Amino acid sequence: MLVQSLLNVIILISCAKAWPNMIQKLAFEKDLSQFYSMLVDNRYAKSSLSYRELTIFAPTNKAFKNFNGTITPNLVLYHVVPMARTLENLHEASLDPILEEHPPLWINNDGKNIFINNARLLFNASNFIIRTRADLYGKTQVLHVIDEVLTPMNGIAVKPTAYDFLVQPRFWQFVPHTFGGFYKKVVQNRAQHLFKSDFGNTFFLPADQFIFQNTLSRIDRDTIETHIIPKKIIFTRSAKDEFSYTTKGSDKEFYDTIEFLDGHVRITRVSRKTHQITNSKTVQILAANIPVRNGVVHVVKEPLGLYDRRLTKFPYLPLMYKLQNDPTLNISNFLFEKTKIIDLLDDYSNATLFIPNDHAWTMVAENLGVNVTLLSSPVFLDRAKIIMRRHIAMGEYFSLQRLVDITNNLRNREVIIDVGVTKLLIKVAKIDGNAYIFWGKSIIKILRPDYECTNGVIHIIDSPFVFEEELIDLPLDTPTNYLKGAWKMLKLMLI
């Protein structure tokens, strides 16, 4: 055994005499000229080549041409590992780069391809082996060529975790997203440890700018766990085609899977009992393949929640879940969110909501002779704060029968309901099997009474409580300062 080891060293030494050193090798390879230039300009990298055992993952010039990130002086150091690893030895889950604060390089070797993070190793140009000295004191160095530039994290603590990225995304200059809303829900559900764990996981973080408040309010512990694929580090290119990865957010009844598509992920819920798909949706990836100490992060456009699991508990759900899961109430949801009145629902154990459906708001717009998107204009939203507050009675549970009984007991006089800064004066009656609200000069049909909830009740109505004077002097055009809000409303209506 000792004789064989000595023979291997002798062979390496004899071969090394015929090879140039690593710097000369890189200088000779024209397709690696940009990486070579970065390496010789970095004093630490250049000096390390003269005496250390190393593995270098060198991106091609084409890889740099396609690179959209920022080239910093220390970027080259993320491509250098302080140990020699030939192709036969690239089986570890990760390798630590030479610069301590950088996250690991994650290795995926499926037998056919080897990926370093999201970069594919080019076999024909790789596995160049050399020693720093032609004697027993020489150090082995290995050169592999890859087809993408490896991107580390900049300007943050040593080896950041997914939790660091969630809390302080501003330190990642190339990721222009924040996650304050999702972070708040993580804290509320005491799930911080899931993003700090040292296990190698794949994490999905929804960006703030695309999350509506009503969507955010539905995020619970199950939903948070659906954003984690445990014990697998999956970069987009190394993801298996047509393969579904099971998320952490699975329970006894269902399991959720994630499949990587072209620039998207598809989240699917499957029944354990029937093995049938119960729900599915596709979400865009905004920023992919962000390496961290405990895995990889992908930024997605919206939360990966599939909320039908909650709907199986019908009818015992909070007001907000009922309100947000009814596809006919999108405009009211939008107005509650934009006026922030929806936040009041968290502060009361009982409430009664009178909610106009989308058709009711569309009729309001038609009567004005304008498009329904006008309801997203700043002028209307300012008035909507008063209008929408008029539709919520806090601290009171008014079932339909109770409203009818109070009206009868008052001998058909108006029921006075406290709706905050003002009072709602209504009479409620059942006529020919239908229920109606008499409010001022308006007769409003209750389309769906007694939508029972754990903290109150919802009545869906066919017209909002709005006075004619509140609709006077609204702009009749569509100025650019609220086109964005109008587009959001239209998207909600199309869900």
- Strand residue content: 25-35%
Q: Estimate the mean pLDDT confidence.
A: 82
Task: Indicate the low-confidence ranges by residue numbers.
Answer: 1-18, 309-315, 477-495
How would you write the strand order of the largest sheet?
Answer: 10-9-15-14-13-12-11
Count of DSSP strands: 22
Helix content: 25-40%
Number of helices: 17
Report the biggest beta sheet as strand number plus sense, adding barrel if it closes. Answer: 7 strands, mixed
Radius of gyration: 31 Å
CATH class of the largest domain: Mainly Beta
Helix-strand makeup class: alpha+beta
Give a quick summary of the entry.
Pfam families: Fasciclin (PF02469). The chain has about 500 residues and is an alpha+beta fold.
